[in-house]
Amino acid sequence: MSNNPPNRTLPPGSTIGILGGGQLGRMLVLAAARLGYRCRIFEPQVDCPASHVADHLAAGYDDLAALDAFAKSVDVITLEFENVPIAAAERLAETVPVRPGAQALAVAQDRAEEKTFLSLAGIETAPWAPVASQADLEAALDKIGRPAVLKTARLGYDGKGQAGIKTDTDIDGLFDTLGGVPCVLEGFVDFDLEISVLAARGLDGQIACFEPVENIHRDHILHRTLVPAGVAADIAAKAENIARTTIAALDYIGLLAVEMFVLRDGRVLVNEMAPRPHNSGHWTIDGAATSQFEQVVRAVCGLPLGDTTRVGRCEMVNLIGSESDDWEKFLGEPGARLHLYGKAESRPGRKMGHVNYVWPEKA
Ligand SMILES: Nc1ncnc2c1ncn2[C@@H]1O[C@H](COP(=O)(O)OP(=O)(O)O)[C@@H](O)[C@H]1O
Ligand SMILES: [Mg+2]
């Protein structure tokens, strides 16, 4: 149980604690189970997707007694939800290794911290400025120019907490419409395409990357992922290098997703990163020798990282809201591999499942 020497390999049979109980946690549990691991979920919400497949402790991240009990009942902790309060991650780490650790989490939770970290690591992002008031916003917009995007520094996802600023947008009072919280202003990037690279780093410092994938968004939500990405080999190499540099600089254990913009002139800018399995890696469940979820298990348990080779051309299509009502259609479609998350209610914009397709490589 607890008191593991920090770098000991945790063999099959060990228990992995997962912070967060959404679909990413659910798929992580399934991958862990396949390798003979047990999982326990820490998630405030009852009946969360991961609770259907693993032991679940429903408590808040401010419940110190629950955090301590959870930490004592597992051998290592990882996460599927990046907004775990840092104080909670630190508290857990007093008892059991938390991978990735609180420091990497702190960087990934805050867009300003993230961009500052990236620039120190020599990695390019869109032009940006921190914004803490309407006056800051006006000054930042003068500096960065239009079009631009105002984003809350924390807690954004699926395009939530963002406001686009076009050439004619009236920005009067715009800072308050995002809640009056710390923000960043980013120059709008006229990208050619969006890609992501998922990198894993093991206890011994070994790094393995899945190849870059191409991401197509609809209403700011990931719609499809195409593998391989439609980029030249030199761009793919550049993107993988960025992910490697980032994960090494963070001294990170686990899987890190790095979202990037590819520009027409061949530049690759980092948009944001996620310290957990990522929607753009769901194709790996059916399309790679090792899935992104198995890779998390391997990394945080101190096992050798798995082979990231792709087994064919792949496409992942998200099922958003009522799209999952068509489950019978997907079940009947040759080649379609259906994944549903067990969510009782399909609200608009909610990720309900996905479908993976794997085709033979083009001759
Ligand atoms: N600076 C930008 N320029 C152009 N498009 C952007 C910019 N920032 C975000 N976007 C678009 O919005 C999507 C969501 O923004 P992102 O920063 O990734 O937030 P999140 O995924 O946390 O909602 C991106 O994948 C991209 O399509
Ligand atoms: Mg994003």
TrEMBL record:
One of its GO terms (biological process) is 'de novo' IMP biosynthetic process. PROSITE patterns: ATP_GRASP. It catalyses: 5-amino-1-(5-phospho-beta-D-ribosyl)imidazole + hydrogencarbonate + ATP = 5-carboxyamino-1-(5-phospho-D-ribosyl)imidazole + ADP + phosphate + 2 H(+). GO terms for molecular function: 5-(carboxyamino)imidazole ribonucleotide synthase activity; ATP binding; metal ion binding; phosphoribosylaminoimidazole carboxylase activity. GO terms for cellular component: cytosol. Residues 115-301 form the ATP-grasp domain. Keywords: ATP-binding, Ligase, Nucleotide-binding, Purine biosynthesis. Its EC number is 6.3.4.18. It is an enzyme of class 6 (ligase). The keyword ATP-binding applies. InterPro entries: ATP-grasp, ATP-grasp_carboxylate-amine, ATP_grasp_subdomain_1, PreATP-grasp_dom_sf, PurK, PurK_C, PurT/PurK_preATP-grasp, Rudment_hybrid_motif. ATP binds at residues 111, 151, 156-162, 186-189, 194, 217, 271-272. Pathway: Purine metabolism; IMP biosynthesis via de novo pathway; 5-amino-1-(5-phospho-D-ribosyl)imidazole-4-carboxylate from 5-amino-1-(5-phospho-D-ribosyl)imidazole (N5-CAIR route): step 1/2. Homodimer. HAMAP family: PurK. Catalyzes the ATP-dependent conversion of 5-aminoimidazole ribonucleotide (AIR) and HCO(3)(-) to N5-carboxyaminoimidazole ribonucleotide (N5-CAIR). Catalyzes the ATP-dependent conversion of 5-aminoimidazole ribonucleotide (AIR) and HCO(3)- to N5-carboxyaminoimidazole ribonucleotide (N5-CAIR). Belongs to the PurK/PurT family. This is N5-carboxyaminoimidazole ribonucleotide synthase. It comes from Pacificispira spongiicola.
